[in-house]
Amino acid sequence: MTTDMTDQRSAPGADPGDRAAQMRSTVRFTVNGEMREIEIDNRTTLLDALREHLRLTGTKKGCDHGQCGACTVIVNGRRVNSCLTLAVMQDGHEIETIEGIGAPDALDPMQAAFVEHDGYQCGYCTPGQICSARAVLDEIAAGIPSHVTGDLSARIEITEDEIRERMSGNICRCGAYANMMTAILQVSRGAP
Amino acid sequence: MDFNEPAGTNPADRGTVLGKSTPRIDGPLKTSGHAPYAYERHDVAEDQLAGYPVFSAIARGRITRIDSAAAEAAPGVVAVIRSTDMDVLGKHGMNVVPHFGGDEIRHYHQAVALVVAESFEAARAASGLVRVAYDAEGHADYDLSTHRDTAMARKAEPDQDVGDFAAAFAEAPVTLDETYTTPCQTHAMMEPHASIAQWDEEGRLTVWSSTQMVNWLVEGLCSAFDLDPDQVRVDSPFIGGGFGSKLFMRADSVLAALGARATGRPVKVALPRPAIANNTTHRARTIQRIRIGADRDGRITAIAHDGLSHTQPGGDGENSTAQTPFFYAGANRLITPRLVDLHLPEAHAMRAPGEASGLMALEIAMDEMAEKLGMDPVEFRILNDTQVDPGQPDRPFSDRNFVTCLRQGADRFGWADRNTTPGGRREGMWLIGHGMAGAYRGALTMNSGALVRLRPDGTAVVETDMTDIGTGSYTIIAQTAAEMLGLGVDQVEVRLGDSRYPVSSGSGGQFGAPSSTAGVYAACVKLREEIARRLGNVDAGSLDFADGRVTASGRSTSLAEIAADGEITAEDKVAFGEFQDDVLMATFAAHFVELAVHAGTGETRVRRMLAVCDAGRILNPLSARSQVIGGMVMGLGAALMEELAIDTGRGFFANHDLAGYEVPVHADIASQEVVFLDTLDPASTPLKAKGVGELGLCGIAAAVANAHYNATGLRIRDYPLTLDKVLEELPAI
Ligand code: FES
Ligand code: FES
């Protein structure tokens, strides 16, 4: 990562606060398997780097404050709210977005299950839900406990309670939760 | 096509595609992140700037000065637009408060300036440098309950005064007189209001937006910027939820257009989440007094519903009495919707406006009344069913199967096995309760147009400015055209949300699905007539469309052959006739809920929900079910958690983001079951369909409240049923 404090647009004699606000950096990270290098304002969130700079608009902005989960992406194998992390903090990281998971004509099993069971309505929370749903199954498989996990030394079972608890950072105002549950359970069983 | 009498048998009745569960045709786009929402249209205009609004910090008063010098000098800033630089801009007829212009502040978080910059970060930072000075009106009282004496009648609905309520109520051997309150609620759709605006050299405006009613936004922009409709284009193919919040013009499109006009470049504006609750509309708080009198057998003889809510001057607030004139029988009726002017943000439609909050109260009252009568609440409702407008008995319901909903629901749910002693069933630390409620929501229809193209390859395209706000419009429109033209759903392309297409009903009031598909039906009938003409003036009614072919008197021709010389287009609109005023059209449901209340903490967990719905032909059972479960989720929120907290001294909603305003999450939703009765309503549309988008929300909150009472024995009449309201009185652990 390189940081340039003398942005050409900074007015001469601007106070230090202004200059700091104008700090820009070059960041390199991998997005959906592809190395990307972007030069950005240091204040840019990972979410806006994806949406505005890389034009990967599948990741959604519902609140910009870590309250809704619409911006969920996978960084180094773990899900994060991309609105709560700055792009400059992602140098060298591997990022996966909904666009990397599947395409309209080549859906991933989780995406296909959402379509089959109508696990969405308006679709705005959906990319975040799908990123979370895939991560939830990985987290359970990796033995990471949740608030509802009973025996911490036993293998964690995939139950509706586990899924509900772990999905609860992703709000769906359309209320498609029950259908998402059907889709996630289907994928967890490895069913087509 | 004029729809002037109830529909007879027609091609839509075949049911080869319509009525079949069909996965959404836009599903692959939505699940892969390729569906373009308003703020994401990088492709439509080059060199977009970002706008970030500045919002009022007072609820009422005047702006005395806006100092934007520091913001203008900030890095990356291209322009600052100040409300005080212009006169008040025109608004749409549905808007109560204008969005921008002038110095008057009418509500908190009203937009007062817009910073336009090269980047979102620069605009947001500079917005904090804009200094606004106000002359604020002093401390006011924004508590609805203290303003009963200034209440006025609603201009939109007259009182219903039938028979002699006072006398009948006084004579009734069993009576109820209780007051219920529902709080302000916010739509909280997941996609914030957003628009990109661009002006061309000829002064024409294009706005890529997120709106439920494309034509209303066109009208609004014409009014704000003094344009003719042919100078405005609105495009809104995907909408990340609306629930009424995006029914008509909002500040995002106005501000984007102002920014674009000032800078000569396209400008995009999204309302920041923390500004949405106060800047846009909300469902108003209500205070509802309900009185019911019945004879000893349980027949209602007298019913009164007084519903109070607030509005900005000139608006309509929330009519919580909407259903009461029609839902239950009773010869003596007094229904009095009332309003108080308050300078809270603009109260307006939120999903099932009126019925959603009205049934929250009425259906608790019915439960209380059944208990007083010693009756099963299901039987009490069945006894008081009506097949005609109780206030005007010569006006029948077009099709009402509420009793079937109640009976089927009770059967499926196992209602008979419940514990009937409030607070009488406990499993460990959990008090278990069962409750039910009825649901009523009017079935509006709106004129709606569409254009159908038959392409030379034998596939079809439908174009209409109808929107899909998650409701499934893309798919039911494809199903309708496929049914009418004998095609597969995958052979129909649907193009929505563009003002260049024929004006449709739009999405609102659960009229979208029945109305827009009726418009597509009309256009398809016209296309069938044109095909009949081309087949040698045969009778269009005798044509049989199947498998991409049309058969006329034994001769079969492929649609591709018919359109071989060039695309054939047909455009029409359905116009609903006055005969619909002679009947009452509505949708009905019965909700059943099982829940558990923690005896120690008062925490409520809903365990299962069942809705049995009566809404005419269900066009796509898969997406219709989603609409209903989604409504039930929202209703669970209304029952247990949703409340915009009013700062009653300063006049704003204090919990104005998704952390402070709680909505249901995955962990709140267990089993949900939906049953649709196999009904048809020929008076509604040619497809005999009614909407379900709001029905699921109606009544469900009261079913939760009634189950909560059954679990705890504590009757709460003040929503939401948060644990602080029961903690003191819960039984000893
Ligand atoms: S946009 Fe990141 S959590 Fe809402
Ligand atoms: S599908 Fe609309 S918010 Fe989830």
From TrEMBL, chain A:
Residue ranges of the region described as Disordered: 1-24
Protein's organism: Paracoccus isoporae
Signal peptide coordinates: none
Pfam family, one: Fer2_2
GO MF annotation: an example: metal ion binding
The entry's keywords: 2Fe-2S, Iron, Iron-sulfur, Metal-binding, Oxidoreductase
PROSITE patterns: 2FE2S_FER_1, 2FE2S_FER_2
Residues of the 2Fe-2S ferredoxin-type domain: 25-101
SUPFAM superfamilies: 2Fe-2S ferredoxin-like, CO dehydrogenase ISP C-domain like
UniProt-recorded name of the protein: Xanthine dehydrogenase YagT iron-sulfur-binding subunit
Gene3D superfamilies in the record: 3.10.20.30, [2Fe-2S]-binding domain
Record-level GO cellular component terms: periplasmic space
InterPro entries: 2Fe-2S-bd (IPR002888), 2Fe-2S-bd_dom_sf (IPR036884), 2Fe-2S_ferredoxin-like_sf (IPR036010), 2Fe-2S_ferredoxin-type (IPR001041), 2Fe2S_fd_BS (IPR006058), Aldehyde_Oxdr_Iron-Sulfur (IPR052914), Beta-grasp_dom_sf (IPR012675)
UniProtKB/TrEMBL annotation, chain B:
Domain annotation Aldehyde oxidase/xanthine dehydrogenase a/b hammerhead: ranges: 32-138
A Pfam family this chain is assigned to: MoCoBD_2
Family matches, as SMART domains: Ald_Xan_dh_C (SM01008)
Domain of life: Bacteria
Location of the region described as Disordered in the Swiss-Prot/TrEMBL record: 1-31
One Gene Ontology MF term: iron ion binding
Protein name as annotated: Xanthine dehydrogenase YagR molybdenum-binding subunit
The species this protein was found in: Paracoccus isoporae
